[in-house]
Structure formats: C-alpha cells, structure tokens
Amino acid sequence: MFYKKILSCIVTLLALVNIFPEAWSSTPLSNSSKPREYKHWLGDDYARNALLQESWAAGFFFNRYTFKGTERILDIGCGDGKITSKLARFAPQGHVTGIDQSSTMIQKGSASYSSIPNLLFIQKLAQDKSFYEKHRGTFDLVTSFTALHWVKEQKAVLKGVYTALKPQGKIYFRLCSDGEDPVYEIANDLAFHKNYQNNFTEFVDPLNRFSVSDYKRLLYDTGFNVISVIDVEDRDEINNVEDLAKQIKSYLPHYHFLRDHISTDVAENFVKDIVSEYEKRIPKVNNKIILIDHYLEIVAQK
Fold this sequence. Notes:
The chain is α/β, with parallel strands linked by helices. It has a single domain (35-301), classed as Vaccinia Virus protein VP39 (Rossmann fold). The protein is built from twelve helices and seven strands. It has a seven-stranded mixed β-sheet with strand order 3-2-1-4-5-7-6. Strand 4, helix 7 and strand 5 form a beta-alpha-beta unit. It is globular and about 55 Å long.
C-alpha cells in the first residue's frame, strides 16, 4: 500500500510538470496570464549599440556567397537595415525586401537607406502567412541574421519561406543554438537575485534555442533539402567593458524589459552587474574581453 501511494505521488508530480512546465523553468517567467508587452527593439538604440552583427553576417554569408547581381532577396528581421542595404548593393539588378516586426526599425532603415532604389522595408511579422502567400514563388534567396530565435512559430516561418521561394531558391539563416551563452546565463541568474527578482515577475523570455537535430527536423518536415546545419562558437574580441555593455544592450530582453517597464537606472545597473560578473567568469585574452556565444548556421534549398 505504501509503495502504491509513492507511485501515485510520482505520477501526479510528472503530470504537473507536463501541464505547468513554466513552474519548473530555470528562467524567470510571468505570473500573469497576460504578460506585459514591451518595446524591445528601438531602431536608434539598436543602430547605436549593435557592434558585431555586421561582422557575423560577413563571416557566415557575404564572404562565401557568390552574387549574380539579379537576385530577388527577402531579409527577415532586417533591424536597422544596415545588412539589408548591403544585400541590395550586391544585387543592383535585383531587388531586396527587408521585413521586421518593429516599426522603429523599419523607420530607421527606410530613412537611412532611402537612396537605394532596389530596396524596400516593410513592417511585418516573420510568421505572417499572408505576406508569403502574396509573394509566392518570388524570391531567389531568403536571409535572416541573428533574428529568428526571437520567433516562437518556426514552423510557420519555414512554411511561409518555402512558399515564397522560387524553385531551387536558398535560405541562409543564423540564429541562437542551445550551446553555451555566458551573458544570458548571468542575466538569468541575476534576475533571481534579491536586488532584481521583484522587477522580473512579469517578464517572459522571448528567446528560442535550437539544436542541430531540432532544426534539421524542422527543415525536412517543411520540404527543404538541407545543405548544412552547424553549431558554431563565436569568440568575439571586445575592446573594453563599455563596448561589451553596448553589445549586451543591443539585444538582451532582460535589459529592454527593465528599461521599458521599471526604470532606465535599474536597467543600466543590471547591465553593469552582468559585465562585472562576466569579467569574473571569462578570462581576457591579450587584454581583450572575449564574448562567447553559440549559433546555428543554416543553409537549405527548396
């Protein structure tokens, strides 16, 4: 009888974990059924703080892709438009469309690169089915650089992209993997610290991580021919703590949430504490801060 009671308790516990997985998450999640929306991406802030995105795109894509110059290209999560404008310059007889969910990002891109005639910015969600249906069979190439990990509905994105690609069209995606990410780990630890935990009760982490096998499965299920899916470790050299703080502020949702819903001072102190802890955990090399992160680099064809 005693063992039956123990077994019953275990079964009940497992059921609760499946029904309420957020209760067992190691990251701070909302206690509210309707978590606060926050601005997250502000075009001017991103343009000012993002230090590494362009070099990441160069290493993954621009240094290895041979342009014909006539490509019709879709760039998903175009941000402030800097990388998207580069795509347009490499395809002068083609056309490039950049989409982003942030109105301030689209405004920034449109204002900064209005002189490029074969470039268009549109405010759209990456998973917007109607957009892809409208552009069925339109694009030779679809790119996305460090953006799609913010989209939960990956299947919807991939189905849409597959629809919008021409036959033999290719995708080049770069997004977060499930590998080591010390900055994010420190941010999650600090969110539970007594100095900050009350500020994060309504925070929902929007980041999605994928393994190589996870993303290959998504691609195959959509109908893509997988060319390569690899997990790469970035070890970027950062000159000083000020630049590390800027790069963190360009993307970290914990910071954006505090800035938008608590106060700028609390948000700035949070980043300072991350930087301080990062310096303790990750040794410098040749007096340079080494920013460690892991990404999936994905190439596939329709």
